[in-house]
Structure formats: structure tokens, C-alpha cells
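Kindly inspect this today.
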Amino acid sequence: MAHTAHTQFTVLGPVTVVTGGRQHRIPRAQTRGLLALMLLNLGRRVSREAVIEAMWGGTPPSTARSQVHNAVTVIRGRLAEIGAPEVFASDPSGYELLVEPHQVDAARFDERVRLARDAAARGEAKEAVRLLRGALDLWTGEPLADATGSFVDAARARLVERRLTAVEDLADLELDLGRAEAIAAELAPLVDAHPMRERLRVRQMTALYRSGRQVEALQTYRVYRNLLAEHEGLDPGREIAELERLILRADSGLATPQTVAAPALLPPDIPDFTGRDAAVDDLRKLLTDGRPAAALAIAGVAGMGGVGKTTLAVHVAHQAAPAYPDGQLYANLRGAEAVPLDAADVLARFLRALGVDSRAIPEDVVERAELYRTRLAGRRVLVVLDNAASEEQVRPLLPGAASCAVLVTSRARLTGVEGARWIDLEVFASGEAIRLLGRVTGDDRVATQPADAAEIVRLCGGLPLAVRVAGARLTARPSWRLAHLAGMLRDERRRLDRLATGDLEVRASLALSYDGLDGATRLLFRRLGLFDVPDFPGWLAGAVLDGPADAAAHLEALFDAQLLAAAGVDAAGQIRYRFHDLVRLYAQERAEIEDPSQERTHALERGFAAWLGVAERMAAQVPGPCYAAIGGSVPRPPVDWPLDDVDPLQWFDAERAALLPAVRQACELGLDELAFDLAGRLEKYFDIRGMYADWNAINTLVLGACRRAGNRLGAAVMLRGLIDVVTWNTTPEGGDATTRFHTDAFQLLEMFTELAEPRGMSDAAVMCSWALTAQAAYPEAVDYGTRALRLAEESGHKGGEARAHVALALARGEQLDIVSAIQHLHHALAAARALGNPRYESAVLQFLGIAHREAGDLDASEQRLGESLAISHRYRDNYTKVLTMLALARLHLRRGDPQARSAAESSLALGREYNMTHHVADALGVLGEIELAGGDPERAVAYLEESVAMWRTRGWLSFLAAALVSLGRAYAAAGSPAADGAFAEAQEIATRLGRNGSGQ
């Protein structure tokens, strides 16, 4: 680009190329238009499509590409002809002009205007005038005067707007320098050329008035008023109308301004300001760099009380102050207090700061606002409106001049303030909060006690006000270790008391927001704060307020007051909300003060019951164990949220983090009926997602609560699910899993029998049958399986029928009656499909695949296992997948297929991940058999010894016997004398099972 330095280009008049002081035209108006387009897009590569769009709009000719190419060729040829270097760079992606900004008159104009404004900001009015006049001298006529193209009219209008704005800036400066007569003469032809531009008229009227030409100034106004009425049907704007009024009464404020000190009302910057880098950059750009030339810049900061809005605004205002040399106005509007400041009072204060004598300040608020805007016209003043209450309070305080800017803070987003760009201020991340704590304390305690510092800011919830209070307390007590303050803050009931020092108090800050709410919204705040959940769906508001139609409005009022934060839209499409930890503590504190205990409990009951009602509906659609859905008697309140077409698993995924603590809180409050019913609706979800630790913990907790309350039905339902988890997903500390399974299953059957609950009795009888099969009591297992089937059929428990047939198939299969087992499994499959439960269908298909393998039909086995695996993948169901992979591994092993190893290894990995002890033991056995078949008895022994050890904890005799036989073979192949012992123990178990031979 350095080669083109001696070449200049013009667009602020005709489009020309200048070399050696001589102007050269480019042939054809359209070609000049293409050159102008590129000159106005310096530093950017413009695609061929964008060029065509700019030149012809939406209707380009079929030859558009070739015409563009020809125009570029013409420009290159003309430049070469006059001795100018090549400036076009092109490739398949488009064109770029290799020209520096200082070579283009429009870019030089913009740079000089920018420098002029910087000079004005420094108070160098004469230098600013010099620069502006130099910029305006670059104009030689109508911009892009001899160029054509669809883009030209809009580009010309933008350039003219930049010129007129510069003229208006120049007029303001010249008027302040007392040069009214000269500027009045300069403005006359421009006003004639742009008769509808009000800002030019204002400056012309001011110049005429200050030149002693009051009558001409008023005539100018009347001409404008008539033009506006005739052509637009409108009245003049307030600024020019107010100027006419002031001229009529010869207001002293219109005289050439005397030297008045620029207002500097900003509070001092915060010396320990910390973090907020992105917010500071965004606000500074809004107030300085990123401003549209013809619009008032308004930046807004919204956030909860104590989050640091004022601190940020004052800090940014000090940084932006050099760009506003005519002063900075500041007012705390007290928007969170019971009686916010009246805009009229703020206007009076601002007017006095702007040099208006108190006696000249109008009484009427509208007239004050008009005078305020007049005083700010043409000045560069930053207005900071801190802690605003509403749009109505802010609007009268907005300048009319685009040369000014406004920074507003509020606890609510004041979206009705036109043109404002808002940022939402969140609490500090841990690192920022720790840095703030360290800067406030001013010593090395934070650096040397990092864990305790992290705990303090965690307990403060990252709220800057709370962190600052904590730091102030530490500063006042240099002997305290951070652990001491952290210990004090852990007491939730006293935490807000301890986050107060001097005039800094978290509780007081929150109280300002709370007191500004109406009664119903305050009630909702207190009731929602009772729930110890990380977040919650928006429909909970209606439940805790007993379903009023305007619950959503009260919820939004809490959100607008920054007492509640939006947590986003979850996977089920619900809008979720959350409390800051300290806000929740304040809400609970207010509830304890204002609401009787029974009302608080009632609100919690309704909220939990609303969750239960939705969970009940969703759980019915979750595939999983075919237990009977046995619930409690708690009424389910209606929920104002469309439940149709919601994926139930997505709903449970979204709600899990709230449902688990909700169940725990219900237990703590003695709401056992709610607790067991809600926990019961989670069981199928726990199972399909492999959340066995959560399932175990929740059912154990609720079982204890039900037993303490004497809730026998709840205790039975919780024990039923707990038996499954404990049996298949835990390792017993003493004894074996099957023995405990047997004891618990028969206890459960007794409990449901006492309750006369036939569906529960069927579920329990199935468990008894499984336990008896594991202990080789096959006739009794068949009896209990048959009993379970009868109870299920009589009570219409279709899932119980499916489970009973599987139990009977298992008992028959262990008796080596494979034909009967397959018949029962086909009945189970039909029942599972009739129930619409694909997950249990998958489980039945597994057993069918295993049964067909034992019957020697390997193709049928593979087909059934493949069908089961497809369902597992569909539901991300790793539990069912483990057993399918195990069955496939044994199938591949029987066929001699090398896939056996990968299938067994996958089963082992998943089994260990989900603590599926039974399946881990089985997978180890399969891998041992694979190693033995592959001729590596030592590796086989390692796998099989671990498998046998695990089977001893399981207590399932047939599996233990098979593992002992495999281990004996591995020992024998390795030449170990331990083989005889393994075979002997296997023979003893086989005898108990009624089978002949050890399987050697």
C-alpha cells in the first residue's frame, strides 16, 4: 500500500483520482460508482455478490459479473494511464482496495472531526474550530456527484449527515467563542439547502438572536413552523419551541455564555474497584467509541441490590469523563426506597449545576425539562442517573442533544427507555470475589489463607456488597483468621446479621427492593424463598399462591426487582428461576417474621404437591421397572403449564436438581406422605439413568421418615425400590446379597399383605420368587411366581404380569426347563408391549436371547439380543445394555467369534462404572473363559478368581458353581493343585441344585 501514497481519491464531490495536484476522472458514471463503493469500504474485502447488490440492488442484469469485471479493468487501465499504481486486489472471494485512509478525502474528513471533538473535550475550543474548518474545506460539492449505483443515494445521505453534524458542532463552538454574526452568515445557505433540519435552525436562531437580530430569529422559527405543518403535518420539537419562548422573553440564558465551571457532580471513584473488565469495556464503548452521531447514547446497568451497579457506573463515568468536557451530572434517584426522588427536584439541581439562577428555574416540571435540554444543546455532558425507579422518573432527565450521553443504573431493566442498551450485572465469580476481598482487607491474609477466603466468598454468594462487608470486618479485626469469619458465616440464621458493618448492610440493601413490592408480590417472594432448591420452574408461583391468575405477573415483578434471577429455559421448555443464596435467606427471614408457621408449611405442601402432580404424569411415560404405581393421598393442585408433547425424560433431567432436595426438605418437615409419593415417581427415572446412589440415598431417607411417622404404605413403597438397588447395585458388608434379598422380599410381602394392597403384594411376590431361585429353592420360587401372576391378573396390574412371567421363566430356566422358560418369556414380552414399556420389553428380550442361546438356537438368540440393544441405545440405558453385551459376549464365545472380548470388556467397564456387582462378576467370568480358550490360563485365573470372590458376595448358587468350574479348568490348565478344590466345591453346589456332575 506504500506505493500508492502519492495518489489521492475524492468522494466529497465528484469521484476523482488526484496525482501530482491534478484531478483525473474515471470514465462512465457506473465505473465511478464502483470505485466510490470500494473507497467507502476501505480495509474490507467486498465479495462479488455484495458488489453486485450494491450496484444494482435486487434486480441485477444477467451480465452483472462481467460488468463488474470490466469496470475493475477500466479503473486499473485509467490508473496506469495517469501513472498511478495498482490499487485493486482481487481473488475468488471478492475485491479489496489497497489504499490508506489518509488518501481518501472522506476518511480524512472523519479523522479531523474526531480530532476536533477530542480537542473540544479537552477545552481547546479554538483548536477544535480549526480542525472542523479544515475538515469542511475538504468538501467540493455534492458527494458522489457523478457516480451511479443502487447504493449511491443512501451513501450520499450518510455523508451529508456527517457534514451537517460537523457544521452544527462548529456552530456551537463559534457561538461559545462569541462569533455569532459570522456563524449566522455561514448557516444561512445551509438552512436554505436543508430547510427541515431543526438542529440547524436552532443554531441559526441562536446566532441571529446573539447578533441582535431578534426579529429575524423569530421569523426563522415561523418559517420552519409553517414548512413543518405544510409538508409533515407536525408541530416543531420542544427544543426549538422552547428557544422561541426564551427569545420572546429575551431570556438571559440565551446571551453569549460566560465562563461557567463545568459541573462535576460524580462521586469519587472506588479505589479498590475490582473486576468487571468486560462490563467496563462495553459501557465505555457505548459512551464514547460506539456512539451513533445523531442519537443520544444511553447505557443501562441492571442488577440486584448489592451487586455493584453504582460502583461500576461511577468507575466507568470517571473513565469516560474526558470525552465530556462540558461536565458530568450525577444523581442518586433513590429508586429502591419507599419515596424515590421527584424528577422535578433532580432537574432543579441539574439546572443550578449548569449555571441557571435558582430564580430562573421554572416551577412546572415540563418547563424545567425543556430548559434543561436547551442548556445541554450543543454541549458534551455525561449524565449519570443512579438507582432509577422507573421510566417515568428517567425520561424528563434525558438530554435532547446527541452530543450528550446518559448512564442509568436500576434494579430493574427499564426497557421503556427508548434507545437504551442494557447490560445485566451478575454476582462475582469466585476468583473476582477473592480478589475484591484481598483488596478490601489490604493485607496478606487472603493470599496466605486461600481456602478460607474461597469459603467466605462462597458464603457471600459472590455478592460484591457482601464481600465488601466481609472484607471491612476483617480490616477492622486484623487479628482474626479468615477461618473464624467463615465459621461465623456458616450459621445461616445469623449470616445476614454478620454481613453488616457501618452503613454497609446486605439486609438493608435487600429490604429496599422488598419494600418496593406490592403485598401479593412480597408474599410470593416469601413463599418461593421457603424452597431449598437450586432453581424452580415458573409455574411453581401459581401453586404456592393457590393458583391466582396473576401469579406470573408477580413472578415477573420479582424478576424485574432483581430479587429473582432467570436461570434460562430448560430442556423441557420450562422457564426456570433461581434465588441468590443471600436473597433466599432474606426471603426465609421475612417469612418467619410475617407468616404463621402453618401458612409456611401449607405453601411448601402445595409446591411439593404441584411437582408431584407433574412428576406423576411424566413418570407414567418413562419406561422402566414394571412396579405398580402406588401413591399417597395428597391432592395434586393444577399446574399452569402445558404438559402435552413434553418428553418425560427431558422433564426429569431438567427437574432432577430441584426434585431431590424437595424430597429431602419434605422429609425434614415431616411431610412423609408427599415425600414417599414424590420419591416413588423418581424410581423409574433413577433406574433408566443409572442413578443408583441417588435412588439408594433418597429411598433410605424417605423410608426412615415414613417409619417415624407410622406411614406403612409409604414405607412399603420405599422398601420395594430399595430392595432392587441394594440387591443389584451394592456389595453387602456381611453375608451375601441373596440372603438379604430373601429377607427383605418376604418382609415387603408381609407389609403389602397387611395393607391389603394386591398390586404391591404381586411386586413383592416376584422378588420372593427371584430370591428363592437364587438360593436354588426352585419349587418355592415357582409357587411365589405363580402367586404373583394371579395377584397381578386379579388387580389389573399388567406390569406385574410381565414381571411374574419373567420370574417364572427364571425359575424354570434354572431347572433347565428351557421350553417352559421361553413360553413364559413370550407372555412377558406380550405384556410389556401391551403396557407400552419399551425398557421392560428390552429386558424380556435379553432373557429370550439368553434362553435361545441355552436352547442352542444361536441365530434367534442374536436377533433378540440385537432388538434389546437397539432399545437400550434409544434410551441411553446402560444398565440394560450391560446384560445384553454380556449375553452377546457368551454368544460370540460359543461361536468362536473374536467379538466376544470387546463385548465382555464393554460390559465390565459399564458394570464397574455403575457398581453393577452382579454383572461385573459375570463379565469377569466371561473374560476368564475367553483367556482360557485363547491358551492363557494365568490371565484366565486372575479374572476367574475375582469373579468367584464376587459371586460369593452375591450368593447366587448357580452362577457361583459355574464360575468355580471355569476357575477349576483354568487352575488345571495352569498346573495348579487348587483345581481339585474348585471342582469339589462346584460339585457340592451342583448337588444342592439337583444337578449331576461338576462340569469338569
Summary: The mean pLDDT is 86. The radius of gyration is 41 Å. The first helix runs from residue 29 to 39. The first strand starts at residue 7 and ends at 10.
